[in-house]
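Supplementary notes for students who missed Thursday's class. We covered one full example, reproduced here. Read the sequence, then the structure, then the short commentary at the end.
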Amino acid sequence: MAGIDFFFVIAILLVSVVLHELAHGYAALKLGDPTALYAGRLTLNPLKHIDPFGSLLLPIMGYLLGGFIIGWAKPVPFNPYNLQAGRWGEALVAAAGPASNIVIALLFTLLIRFGGFAGGFIDIVSYIVLINIVLACFNLIPIPPLDGSKIVFAFLPLPFVYKYRMMLESYGIFLAIAILFVVWPLLFPFVLDVFGLVTGIPV
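Structure (token representation):
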């Protein structure tokens, strides 16, 4: 990947993770929790959302090591006890993040399919689609602290949720390493297949 492509990818990734976190915050606000609003996180200002490791260092490391480029922003704070939807509230807030990435990917897929564009513009739009598919699939992995775990918890019996959550969250750092270096490489070929299917562009 050329140097200029790398900077495009980082810019697209930053915008996408910011929109992902904004979706969490606005979903929580709609469900009755203004925590993110009071924390000043319902803003498009990337400086409010950038996580030094997840938004900058990790993507750069992924690029330099020749691997996949993945990242995240600082999680938007919310108080699950303020949410009006009961135990489903946390799942709805969690689902809003990946849903925002899916919507972005679908909108830009329509540009690829029906926009009649070519060349460099299609390359940029393809990056947008691919990165947002990556973010949606990555965050839907049902392992804490990813969004998929909160969605799964809503469907499980409460006693099992408490036990499962305490057990997994106590090994957070090890789970994060496992997700990045074991689970995600196994899932990434599926992501590329989805990208090729929706855009018609072979990877």
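Commentary. The mean pLDDT is 87. Helices lie at 3-30, 35-38, 52-64, 87-114, 120-139, 147-153, 158-169, 172-199. If anything here is unclear, bring it to office hours.
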